[in-house]
Write a structure and sequence with these properties.
Length: about 260
């Protein structure tokens, strides 16, 4: 049969058939589609896992707030500021000194500008209202949503401390309660701060959060301020308590400034 294929023998190759190639192509396409689908699923699972396991990428927002100090003196020398502070303490004022480049000798702090202005306007000495603006702070979320909520509550301690003590302090000024009752109220507030300090310490031990560590230091200082107020002997009890509240609020401002 050589005449049908020319001078040389001709071997017909099976490769000329197209059907097997098409089958292999279809199989490879299906495999690729399956692999791509698996990759997409794995990527989705990975992203979900990352956001579930690492909530610290979120932040805790500590809102900005303002506090208002009634100031009577603004000397430029520390010796004069201390003398003015002592004069205020002898009349029941806090005598707390704020140094922002000028020494501001303050009688008390208020959470309302209208209240602070009303008090300043009633004074026989020249008085002004000095505003301390605590900035908004954003810190990394801690561990999980529940723990982050507890940390946020810890940063709000100063507001509750202020409200609880001022209510009793006002009653004392109006002659509606005694020093003993006022001391009891301050002792109760102190216990509350100590308990909050222990809660935040437990969170820090588990997370090593620098913000929580700074909060623990702040709560320690708040306890010390109240201890001095209760155990001190100089000036009157009301004056020492006012001083402690002024210090607790201002230190909270300093904490926010340090975390920003």
């Amino acid at each position: 049969m050589q005449q049908y294929y020319g001078d040389k023998p001709h071997i017909i190759s099976r490769k000329s058939k197209k059907r097997p190639k098409k089958r292999r192509g279809r199989t490879s396409g299906k495999v690729r589609a399956v692999l791509i689908g698996l990759c997409v699923v794995c990527a989705a699972v990975f992203l979900i896992t990352v956001f579930a396991v690492y909530p610290s990428r979120d932040v805790i927002r500590l809102k900005a707030e303002k506090w208002y100090y009634v100031s009577f003196y603004s000397p430029t020398e520390i010796v004069e500021a201390e003398l003015n502070a002592q004069s205020l303490k002898e009349t029941g004022g806090a005598g707390y000194i704020i140094n922002d480049g000028t020494f501001r000798v303050t009688a008390f702090v208020y959470n309302s500008s209208s209240d602070a202005k009303a008090v300043a306007d009633k004074q026989t000495l020249t008085a002004s209202v000095y505003t301390v603006a605590i900035p908004e702070v954003k810190i990394d979320a801690v561990k999980d949503e529940s723990t982050s909520k507890q940390v946020k509550e810890g940063f709000s301690v100063h507001g509750k401390v202020y409200d609880d003590i001022v209510s009793v302090l006002n009653e004392f000024d109006r002659g509606q309660t005694t020093e003993s009752a006022m001391l009891h109220a301050v002792t109760t507030v102190r216990s509350y701060i100590v308990a909050e300090r222990e809660r935040q310490q437990a969170i820090y031990n588990e997370t090593s959060s620098t913000a929580v560590n700074a909060l623990c230091d702040y709560l320690d200082s708040a306890v010390q301020s109240l201890d001095i107020a209760m155990l001190g002997e100089n000036n009157g009890l009301a004056s020492r308590i006012r001083y402690a509240l002024c210090e607790i609020i201002y230190n909270r401002y300093m904490l926010a400034a340090a975390l920003n």
